[in-house]
Hints:
This protein has helices at about 5-10, 35, 145-155, 160-165, and strands spanning about 15, 20-25, 30, 45, 50-55, 60-65, 70-75, 80-85, 90-95, 105-110, 115-120, 125-135.
Amino acid sequence: MSAIQKIIDQLELQSHPEGGYFKEVYRSKGTINKENLGQDFSGQRNYATSIYFLLTSEFFSAFHRIKQDEIWHFYKGAPLKLHIISDDGIYSNVIIGNDIEKKQNPQFVVKAKDWFAAEVLDKNSYALVGCTVSPGFDFNDFELPKRDMLISKFPEHSHIITAFTRF
């Protein structure tokens, strides 16, 4: 059994729609009412949620966005690169990893409504991270766009969008 499969089995991870594997490990008992969340949200949300998220060099996390800030925490494996396009069309990237001397970030916040994708940088490897979302994640807040939609919105980033979308 491979190291990747052992992690999937031990943490009881499932396939994620954007790519990779995940398991929710925390969902606060407390909730925030819709009136306190603003017009972007439908219904109430938990205060916070967190997941384990495993990516392999074989599969990337496709461009997507959510309505909340998402904090990425690096745990184990190879560093990964987050590709980010703000709603204003500004592209940036950041390396999530534990080698601080190489300017890797063990933790990074993707701002609410930014489009982002992720890839493992080392071949034949994986990255195990955690993702914390506040207000708590709900699939109603998740948007996985079609390639053509993102390219029409950000034509100057068509190369990176094509590389990190599946359809």
